[in-house]
Design goal:
Two copies of one chain form a homodimer.
Chain A (H helix, E strand, L loop, with lengths): L5 H12 L4 H5 L2 E9 L2 E4 L1 H13 L3 E9 L3 E9 L8 E8 L2 E9 L2 H7 L1
Parallel strand pairs in A: 1-6
Antiparallel strand pairs in A: 1-2, 3-4, 4-5, 5-6
Chain lengths: ~120, ~120
Amino acid sequence: MAADTALDVATRYYQAWTTKNIDAAMSYIADDIVCDAPAGRIKGVADYRAFLAPFAEMLISTDLIASFGDDTTAVLVYDTQTPPVASAPGAECVTVEDGKIIYSRFIFDRLPFDQARQ
Amino acid sequence: MAADTALDVATRYYQAWTTKNIDAAMSYIADDIVCDAPAGRIKGVADYRAFLAPFAEMLISTDLIASFGDDTTAVLVYDTQTPPVASAPGAECVTVEDGKIIYSRFIFDRLPFDQARQ
């Protein structure tokens, strides 16, 4: 049986977190993940969960716009709807090793969330 | 000869704008492009140029992180360095038709640029 591709892993992770199955999502995240997010670098699965879970919890809907990948890298582009921001697209570019995401570049616009808080 | 893929077109467009060849970059943009950017929808190549050119002009460097695509869609993920913001990653998810980009979802974090202006 062929090993899961990076895109397989990223897609399952995405389907889990966008349906608020945070435990399932974290099963695809390496313990020592490094994530370069808009607010700075996040290290380790505990801090990654603390970053992602509150956002996942407030999701109203998501829409996968595009997903591509090769053996080691995958990119997901999607839109999200939450109470503070009606449309907040994001992109995650992840590196996968042994079935887990070990690095992520996480891109979204913080400005509308910042404005909603003020 | 096979037609150019969406990724071929997106890659040439990216190589052009990130080397400040704005005319060359615009040759890959459809006249009636629709671009959903962080600040809202941009319509038409003139407004798209007015959006992209000032940013391209201030580029110090860029680094292509990942690029993928199929016949109609391509995604580029990259980092940019400009005087106001040392690291501003972006993602462009584009739809290509007849060799030109007709739709783009453009994702980046406006917050550091907003903060640099204040």
